Amino acid sequence: METIAARYDAPATICQSYMTEFDIECPKCQRLALIIAGNPYFFNNAQLKCGYCGHSELSADLIRYKVSVRRNCDTCGKLISKVIPHSKAPVDAFAIACPTCSEVRIYKPRNELYTHPHNDPGAGLAPIFGVPLWLQGNIRGNLFWAYNRQHLHAIKEYVGAKLRERQTTTHTTMVEKLPQFIKEAKNREAILKLIEKLERK
Ligand SMILES: [Zn+2]
Ligand SMILES: [Zn+2]
Q: What is the mean pLDDT of residues 65-75?
């Protein structure tokens, strides 16, 4: 085990400092792939790239529209309701036959934009594309994860330090936001062991 400073004195970084790149599991071949987010606050130009199978995705391609018409027929007054849940493009006009009186009319639907990730947001997933983070493991029933190797190293320095003083009072740092199980002394050895395993992964 390499020696770690007893006192924690790393720079007072915030979570976003690490959210420019994510090491992830490729959704096609399940090997190590990379998301380059660039801007940690806006993921609209992010790119997923796998060096093994060549798979790539753009966050712009995740945009979908929920297209819906819900109104009363102007002939018979009965409800007309129609939804296209995952349209890749917005729809301007929509011909619908009334289910009650069969009158066909062109309606202007509502287009609600959203991004459609691989999975719904959750622990251990990249905050964009919804794919599993590469660096993750279990500590006594708790999920430990890191965005990338730099993030993993920053957590390692914090966990390994015996003395942790508050680095700054101007903002909440990344390490202050770590879940409680990572901060607990009783988990220190287990977490450091897992981190070393992830460093070799
Ligand atoms: Zn791949
Ligand atoms: Zn009708």
A: 94
Tens of pLDDT, residues 110-158: 999 888 888 888 889 999 999 999 999 999 999 999 999 999 999 999 9
Residue type, 7: R
Q: Which ligand is nearest to the CA of 31?
A: 1
- For residue 82, the CA-to-ligand 1 centroid distance in Å is 38
**How far does residue 95's CA lie from ligand 2's centre (Å)?**
13
> pTM of whole model > 0.90?
no
CA distance 201 to 194: 10
What is the arithmetic mean of pLDDT over 177-184?
94
Helical (H) or strand (E) element with 189: helix 188-200
Counting ligands in written order, which one lies closest to the CA of residue 134?
Answer: 1
Contacts by 48-55, CB closer than 8 A, 24 or more apart: 48/24, 48/129, 48/131, 50/26, 52/26, 53/26, 53/28, 53/29, 55/26, 55/27, 55/28, 55/29
Predicted local distance difference test score (pLDDT) of residue 3: 54
